[in-house]
Design goal:
Strand order of the largest sheet: 1-2-4
Radius of gyration: 11 Å
Distance between the termini: 32 Å
Strand content: 15-25%
Shape: globular
Helix content: 10-25%
Largest sheet: 3 strands, parallel
Order of helices and strands: EHEEEE
Length: 71
């Protein structure tokens, strides 16, 4: 069954699980065989997503965001 993972922070963090960062969520989907979905918490609307470097995506994923700026 495909899973849905929620991004709860705009920080780019994988070092403090359970981290709600996009990078951490992308690592989590790599552990599943199905095409999962990543959504952003509505409280992040209007914020700026902090990205420290490229992402590695290991499986199919749909990312649904509320218009957050990606830098």
């Amino acid at each position: 069954t495909p899973a849905t993972f929620v991004v709860t922070t705009l920080a780019d963090d994988v070092n403090l699980p359970p981290s709600g960062s996009l990078r951490f969520r992308l690592l989590e989907i790599g552990d599943t065989a199905e095409a999962d979905t990543i959504v952003f918490d509505p409280g992040l609307v209007g914020g700026t997503l902090q990205i420290a470097g490229p992402f590695s995506i290991g499986s199919d994923v749909t990312i649904v965001g509320p218009g957050i700026t990606v830098n």
